[in-house]
Amino acid sequence: MTATQSFLERVQQIGETLLQAERDEPVTPYRACSELRDQLVSRIGQLAPARQGASIEAVLDGLEQIALCTPRTGSRRFFNQLFSGRTEAAAAGEMIAALLNTSMYTYKVAGPHALIETVLTQHMARFVGYEHGEGIFSPGGSLANLAAMIMARNEALPNVREHGLDGQRLAVYASGECHYSIRKNAGMIGLGRQSVRWVEVDDRGRMMPEALDAAIAADRQRGVRPVAIIATAGTTVLGAFDPIEPIADVAERHGLWLHVDGALGGSALLTERHRHLVAGAARADSWTWDAHKLMGVPLSSSVLLVRERGMLEKHFSEAAAYLFHNDEAAFDHGTRSIQCGRRNDALKLWAAWKFYGDEGYARRIDHLFDLARYAADEIERRPGLVLTCRPESITVCFEAVGKPSDAICQSLWREQRAMVGHAEVRGRRIIRMACANGEMTREDVDAFLDTVEEVAAGIPDGDNAVERR
Ligand SMILES: Cc1ncc(COP(=O)(O)O)c(C=O)c1O
Question: CB within 8 A of 250, min separation 6: which ones?
């Protein structure tokens, strides 16, 4: 057997051990970080690299130990994040990409992967309804939002890319339920964190277009210059969809860039049954759409789409004589990205999409939305639980009557029962259950809710009221 064969066999063995462990024990035992470090050190030695190298066998043993004590995000007891589960084709794509180690900046180095990136982003752009759109893979939804906000800023203030900001008072508009990356990005690109206006939402957490219009008008009156509107398709906690059509009317009336953060809910574009949630999608100037959330692709795989081809190059190209030689300029994607060296996040999505097909993906997304609705029905049926509001997508927010949500989440984790997170909605701390694993069934939902009730029963009473931000 060659060294390469034995290395690959050992990796396969580690993978099998890990998958078996996940079936046997869907939640890894809770360890405080110091305890976890001690455990690892006792099994594999000091974590910091030593002066002398180790054998590949020892390194692989170490990787196995680390894998086995990692939180099991792919298991049927993981409801903690907006991603979960495992699509085999996508995992294979990721592993092959690691072996290939391309960088996605030039056709010369990326070869077929540059082509695959173009094919996939155009496929996704067509789902948005962009006839002449383009796209680029980004290291996550936050950074796709960042790139969109940079484009919006540059379009509103044409000199800014060359000469920077000149002290103007600027504003961007997003709902109070938008992802935190919006405020963070505003701080990073010179608009200022204070420039973000939190537009009022309705009882389901959706931005109210009249409130948006009023906020823009009020800013104009005060001499503040509006720059962009950011609508969210699938908010992080409530999974709500801001109504794109009337928001696009407002954007058009005021001549503003409209970006849709569809990191979570962009996948609704894939299904006839749920497309109505993103009606008017093509009216937005740009979209963020994470494949690593509902599409079951390993992190990270996120795409920024823009309606107008050439827009990415206009705002992100830089000359680099050592790198960009125009061999196949259309496929030198580095001229359209905020990055230089860039991971191959396209191949795994390509593999997954070939596996599912458009129809399989539509079924997967419908299933996840249905699962969330089922969970909501179940919560409403159980007297010990209270639903925060009906879910629009895959997150289900609820409380256990009279029991503190944070303590429940912590006990579920520490007792190795399930992983789920808590958040704040309208001044209350709620449990946010995310249905992102396409393999999950109603039985998994039932088992989870039973467990929540059981654990809640053993927790002292407490209040979930929190100070509103
Ligand atoms: C609505 C929304 N936008 C953006 C993001 C950030 O995405 P990422 O984690 O890929 O950076 C999230 C993450 O949960 C999100 O929910």
Answer: 209, 212, 213, 216, 229, 256
